[in-house]
Amino acid sequence: MTTIKLREGAPGARILGLGGYRPRRRVTNDELAQTMDTNDEWIQTRVGIAERRWASEDETLVEMAVAAGGKALAASGLAPDEVDLVILASASLRVPIPGIGPQVAHRLGIPRPGAFDLNAGCAGFCYALGMASDAIRSGDARNALVIGVERLTDVTDTTDRSTAVIFADGAGAAVLGASDEPGIGPVAWGSDGDQYTAIEIAAGSSTMTMAGQAVYRWATTKLTETLVQAMERAGVTAADIDVFAPHQANLRIIESMAKKLGFGEDTVIARDIVQSGNTSAASVPLALTALLESGEAKSGDLALVLGYGAGLTVAGQVLRLP
Amino acid sequence: MPSTADIQAGLAEILEEVAGVTAADATPEKSFTDDLDVDSLSMVEIATAVEDKFGVAIPDDELANIKTVGDAISFIEKNQG
Predict the structure, then answer these.
(1) Which residues in chain A touch residue B40, judged by CB atoms under 8 angstroms apart?
(2) For A198, nearest residue in chain B (alpha carbons)
(3) In this complex, which of B41, B60, B63 lies closest to A252 when CB atoms are compared?
(4) Do A216 and B39 touch (CB under 8 A)?
(5) Annotated catalytic sites of A, by residue?
(6) Phi–psi pair at A155, nearest 5 degrees
(7) Which CATH class is domain B4-79?
(8) CA angle B71, B73, B78 (to 5 degrees)
(9) Using the beta-carbon criterion (under 8 Å), do B60 and A214 form an inter-chain contact?
């Protein structure tokens, strides 16, 4: 019998470079209070957001993804033709056909990579990171580009104070390559499809609704075990974590998770939500780039990341910052 | 089975820890949102703490019907054990 040959893989994968794109327009809570029944104190107390970025017309999903992907490529030191896999995570494409991964890859000058879109809601980036890491380890890809990009304002009723104050726009990206020492731990992922209506664009609607209490309860009770699983699978404990960067959905969820996991005093907690709002699949890479740019996190730090959102879906892993 | 007074005291402890409500304020007629300034997310935290402490389940649709401290006490009494 003829045997099927496999490609030679790598012992591990790691992040070689990160990049982010934040839309130009800052929208403060005071600005929102002019058009809807809300105020700065109400928003800060409930979700912890002070301002967010809303994309302008020319800051399309493709343009933002190209900008973030280009920065991640530059940071990685790789040439575009060294990348052979592109996974683009987004939940806010208004036109589902075609997916935009191939177009973004083309714009970045990456010649004919495997390229596709992935929709796992706000967990998309961490799902894509896990799949790209596995592709490198198996040898199916040498280097991969993973992008999370959202224009949530396209699918948000900007007059609905329960969602308009939260959702925002942006893009974040990571370039992954092979490494002898693993720089990305095993993914811990899961889903709770019984709660599929908790975050949805209902049939016939064009905007998203969120059952805030249900999502908050799910995030603050069930997701601790995913985080613990990600650490256990990577063979690390909370005391080893230098940086905790969960999806930036709500500052109270971030604080609750951090408290439950019991990190050390020196662990840096990502609170990019304060300046960026909830950017769904873009939030984890944006938070990581912000911490590296500010110097709060540094190259070589061990980070615990987690994405979670519509589906409901969740995925997280331990990784070494580039 | 704990008495109503025990439940009220246990609930008051949770309210103090989660929302900073003093025990003297946590009387049955008080509305969580209108009188005690407890927001919808803190209500979820109170519900999960009540679930842990009293061994009851409070689904979100039931939680929506719990408006006052008294509502919470009677829910716990009815659903315990």
Answers:
(1) 46, 212-213
(2) B60
(3) B41
(4) no
(5) 122, 247, 278
(6) -120, 20
(7) mainly alpha
(8) 95
(9) yes
Q: Which chain B residues have a beta carbon less than 8 Å from that of A250?
A: 41
Taking only the tens place, the pLDDT of each residue in A199-245 is 999 999 999 999 999 999 999 999 999 999 999 999 999 999 999 99
B60 in contact with A at a CB cutoff of 8 Å? yes
Query: Which residue type occupies A209?
Result: T
Does domain A188-320 fall into CATH 3.40.47.10?
Answer: yes
Q: Let me know: does A14 contact A183? Beta carbons within 8 Å.
A: yes
Going by the DSSP 8-state scheme, the letter that residue A281 receives in this structure is: G
**E-assigned strands of A29-69?**
51-54
CB spacing of B44 vs A217 below 8 angstroms: yes
Confidence of residue A264 (pLDDT cuts 50, 70, 90): confident
User: Under CATH, domain A12-179 is a member of which superfamily?
Assistant: Thiolase/Chalcone synthase (3.40.47.10)
For A102-158, the pLDDT digits (tens) are: 999 999 999 999 999 999 999 999 999 999 999 999 999 999 999 999 999 999 998
pTM of this structure: 0.94
